[in-house]
Amino acid sequence: MKYKNNETEFAARVCRILDQDVASIDARVAARLRDARQRAVARHADLSFATAGGGHGLFQSLHRHHRGLLALLALLMGAFGMHVWQEHREVATMAEIDMALLSDEVSPGAYLDQGFMAWLDRLSQHEEDSLPE
Q1: pLDDT (tens digit, 9 = 90+) per residue, 58-112?
Q2: Rounded CA gap, 7 and 77, in Å?
Q3: b/e map of 9-20 (b: 16 or more CB within 10 Å)?
Q4: 66-96 burial: b if 16+ Cβ within 10 Å, else e
C-alpha cells in the first residue's frame, strides 16, 4: 500500500511540474506535441480495433482457424495411419497362417475333415490329461 501511495504522489508531482511549464512552451513545440499526441491516440485506437476483431485481429482469427484445421488434419492422418497399420497386421497374420498350413505335413483338406478334427481334439485332451500338475 505504501508503494501505491508513493507512486500516486510521484505522479501528482510530475503533473504539477508539467502544468507549471505549459505556459512557457513555445507555440511551435506545443503544435508538435499536439500532433504527436494525436498520432499516439490514433495508433492506440488502431491497436484496439485490431484486437477487437478488425485488422490484425482478422489475421489472428484466421490463424486460430488454420490451427484447428491442422489439428483435425493431424487427427485424420493418425486415424488413417492406424487403419493402414491394422490392415497390414491382419494381412501379415493371414499370411503367417497360410504359410503354416502350406508348410505343414498335413494337407489343407485334412483340416476340413470332421473326423480329423475330432481326432485332433481327442489327441489334445489326452495330452492335457497326461500332463503333470
Answers
A1: 556 666 678 888 889 999 999 999 999 999 999 999 998 888 877 777 777 777 7
A2: 57
A3: eeeeeeeeeeee
A4: eeeeeeeeeeeeeeeeeeeeeeeeeeeeeee
Q: Could you tell me the three cell numbers for 82?
A: 492406424
Specify the amino acid at residue 120: L
CA gap 81, 89 in Å, rounded: 12
Contact (Cβ atoms closer than 8 angstroms) between residue 53 and residue 61: yes
DSSP state of 54: S
pTM for the structure as a whole: 0.34
d(CA 49, CA 42): 10
Helices 56-103 and 27-51, packing angle to 10 deg = 30
